[in-house]
Structures are given as C-alpha cells and as structure tokens.
C-alpha cells in the first residue's frame, strides 16, 4: 500500500501474536495471517488498508511459490521411486561401520542437497541409522546430531524451498545461491561429524527392537547408477550459468534457464532413466501433495512479511544497530536467526527475513549474494524448535522422547552457528 506506514510496534505485536498462536498449536498459516491482521490494525491501518497489506505481502511470495511447486516433481521422483534410499544405502555401505557417523551425515546431506526435504531425508536415513547405531554402540543423540547436521548442510546447497526463498528474496538465480552455500556447508559437515563423534556414548542407546531394519525390503529400489540421474541432471543444468560466469564463457553465462523449468525436467529425465515413466502422474502428484503444506506456510509468511515491510520496523532496527556500533553486515544473519527461531522453519524464516529486512540489509551496503547466504545460513541455527513439525518428525523417526529431542537442539545450533559464522566472515567481510 503506497503511502501507508504502519508503526513498528504494530509489526512487533503482530509477529509476537503469530508466534504465540503457533506455540498454542494453531495452524501456522492462520497464525501468521491473524498476526498480520492484528499487527496492521494496532499499527494504525484501517480494515481496507489491512487487506491491502496482506494482499501485497502474499503477492511478493508468488514467485517463490511457483518454483517450490515446480520442485515438487523432482522431490516426488526422488522420494517415491526409492532413489533417495538407494543413495543413502550406497553411502553407508561404501564407508562401512568404522566411519558410521561420517557415512550417515554425508548420506543425509546429499539426499537433502538433491532436493528432498530435510525432515523427509531424516525419515529416509533414520532406519539405517538406528540399525547402525545398535550394531556399533552409537547413542541416539549422536545419530540424530549426525542426521540433522548433515541435513542442515545439504539444505543450504539444495533446490529446496528455503534456498528458492533466499534466491527470490534478493532477486538472484537459484544456482548462484546454492553454489555460494557450498563452503559453509562443508564446514557444517565437518563440525557435525566432530560433534556427533564426541557424543557417541552420551545419552540413550538404540535397543534391538528399535533397530529392526532389513535391506530385503528394498528390492524394488533402483540401482545407484539410475538413482543419481535426476539429481545429476538438475545440478548440471543449474550450474551452467554460474560456470559460464566464472569461466568467462559468454554462451554459458547467457543461458539463464530458471529452476522453474530445470527441476521438473530433471525429475522427468530421472524417472525415464529408472524405467518408471508410467509412474509420472503418480510421483508428480505425490510431490505436489508434499509441497502443499510448505506453499501454504509461505503464503502465510508472505502476509506477515507484508506487515513488516509496510512498517518502519526495519528502519528502527537499522537505527538500533548503527547506534550500538555493531557492523551493519550482522543484520542479515541476525534476521535469519530470529525469524527462523520464531517460526521454527528454515523456509518461513528466510521468507520473513528477506521480505522484512532485505531492503534494509542492502541499504547498509551488503551485496545481494552475500545477504542471501548470510540470511540463509542464519535460518539454520535454531530452526528446530518444538513449535515446528521438524522437531516432532525427527523425534518420532529416532524413537526419542520430547526431552531427549530437546537435548539435540543445542548441538544443531552449533552446526547452524558454524555455517553462519563462516558465511558471515567470508561473504560479509572477506569478499
């Protein structure tokens, strides 16, 4: 709404209400919308202007929504065909029991990196992890740190909704954001392996009943060579433009094919390579269904991002940072950390941070690519809190109580914090 300025206190009140309602188990979409409506009214908007704020905010995320829906084809193929399981098993077998922590971390990282949602990636690897943990005497705490840390590292280099949101929030190509996340992801992988290895004997061990897992169930899974076709095609196509830009090859650098096209094409090619072309409608429908909840939350997040964008909250935050003497570069990671913690979601956190503080971050002299990587990594620090579904999905998959699952959160924060520090140092200060 042009000319409308909502008071910063309204934006804070709306965000606080949304968080409280999410914690009270109200559907996150309704919680975010109610927060946006209440905040706009408290901040001085009338009923008509409030609707305008919501419409403007939700319109701002439609580009992200389209790409997330397109990513559903690749995600559906990887999950429903068994390709993701094949990749996980191959990695664990390759490294063997002596390097179990590394194998499990790497398996979850790669499955997430090729376009599988992080909670689904953990669900896929969890049965293997419990079996390995029982045989090798590795605690559930160490196992989930390995899986979650690996998933976080893979998530910042994946064509997943969070990365798409980071790219669209600063009007960048998805491939550039994925590539920029590679160095922080490598550090995240290393720290995960170190931390999980130190925790191997700490906490509850895996019982024999919990470790029931048989590879005989997996006869219908595709061979590794065919399972990797879809992610390989996606990576090659996504990397054409950045490779052209880095190498100075004009033909490649001018080939700007959007992820909206690339991800479905890669999924279809992978499906044909696995000889399951007749499953195209079934797998794409499954992928779309899995994306629906994320899309709805992104729309809800767009509503509250519209509220914050229409307020002077970002101006107040910038003034606070300048007055405190803290480098303006830190606004990007801090906004990612706070928004993801508030919503217990990486993708929702990124959408809120970019929509609410993106312009303020750029106004402080930070480049769009640096801003996107710092916001994105910041959103992985404390995004696995109990008000989000990731917390509960991973607890169930590893047969953990709520108390046991809460014990993992500080170690997940170490992994996310490491990636954020690396991203901030490299992109915020060195480059």
Summary, kept brief:
This protein is mainly alpha-helical and 431 residues long. The protein is built from 23 helices and no strands.
Describe this protein's structure:
- This protein has helices at residues 8-23, 28-42, 47-59, 62-80, 83-95, 100-113, 118-136, 140-155, 161-169, 174-180, 182-198, 224-227, 229-247, 250-253, 259-273, 280-309, 313-324, 331-343, 346-363, 368-378, 389-397, 402-406, 409-430.
- The protein has 431 residues and is mainly alpha-helical.
- α6 (100-113) runs antiparallel to α11 (182-198).
- The chain is globular.
- The two termini are 36 Å apart.
- 56% of the residues are buried.
- The model has no long low-confidence stretch (mean pLDDT 90).
Describe the structure using short key phrases:
431 residues, mainly alpha
List the helices and strands and how they pair.
Blueprint: H1 8-23, H2 28-42, H3 47-59, H4 62-80, H5 83-95, H6 100-113, H7 118-136, H8 140-155, H9 161-169, H10 174-180, H11 182-198, H12 224-227, H13 229-247, H14 250-253, H15 259-273, H16 280-309, H17 313-324, H18 331-343, H19 346-363, H20 368-378, H21 389-397, H22 402-406, H23 409-430
Helix pairs in contact: 1-2, 2-3, 2-16, 3-16, 4-9, 4-15, 4-16, 5-6, 5-7, 6-7, 6-8, 6-11, 7-8, 7-21, 8-11, 8-23, 9-10, 9-19, 9-20, 10-13, 11-23, 13-15, 16-19, 17-19, 18-19, 18-20, 19-20, 20-23
